[in-house]
Design brief:
eight-stranded mixed sheet; PIG-L deacetylase family protein; Rossmann fold; single chain
Amino acid sequence: MPLSPELYSPDARTRLLVVAPHPDDETIGTGELVQLVRAAGGEVRVLLLTDGDDNPWPQRWLERRIRIGAAERMRWGRRRRQEVGEALERLGLPPSALHALGWPDMGLTAGLRERPEAMGAALRGQIAAFGPTVVALPALADRHPDHGSAHVLVRLALAALQFPESPLLLGYLVHGRDERHPPGVALAASATMHAAKLAALTAHRSQMALSAGRMRRLTDRPERYQRIAPRAGEPRGVLPWRPRAWRSQLRLTLADAHGVRSWSWARAPLERDGQGGYRLREPLAAPCFARLDMDVPTPWIFDRWGWCEL
């Protein structure tokens, strides 16, 4: 039987950094954790990676428009950032707790491939300036590509900083399930904090317009987190995927301390592992992550394979 999750108890020394890829992730994933840390006298900072501006269907509905150009997207992003500020106020945080990077919504994976140094430097600066003892970040197995790539970016930034005492890493899952890594940390139930979390959710009016039921279901789940610990030993480079179809359309991405490399499946430095799988012929450094995706445009936003840690 799986072990029961450990109850998390912060204190006045706790410095919690919440990494939110989009507006509303901070509330859905960590709304009660934020309140718990504040109630204990700790500090909280929310690092918002994107303004959630690539969100066309609610915008079309609320603004009664079909075409959405650059100006409309910028306006929508400003609206969503204002909603985050209101949500955090309902969770008991001052405006100074929010730090927004303004990266492209639905663009974190492309950014990681194309400008990893710039994105890594921005994250390292934010993390070093705050000095967290706890980091709540999206789970690697989250099916939204921005969430998985946010996990990789934060993990690589933390590894490069080399804290004297590593912060506790808590992974929260919004989209999808991860049966392989059950939650290891939970929060004590609090009706008052849950009510405040639901009130914070209603501040995200742009998202509630079309998806109120789904948003409430996500927010109603007990907050449970994966305790993320560094893998022991050197990465072996064995991939978990054995793709048969669409190989000509697949792209493999590798991200570790050596940098970010990306290849079409046909050109990737792969060899058979003797058991029907594939192994990378590349020097690897922990933490090391690989991603498999289709290198073709698609209206479906969620990952089929996504990221894994090697």
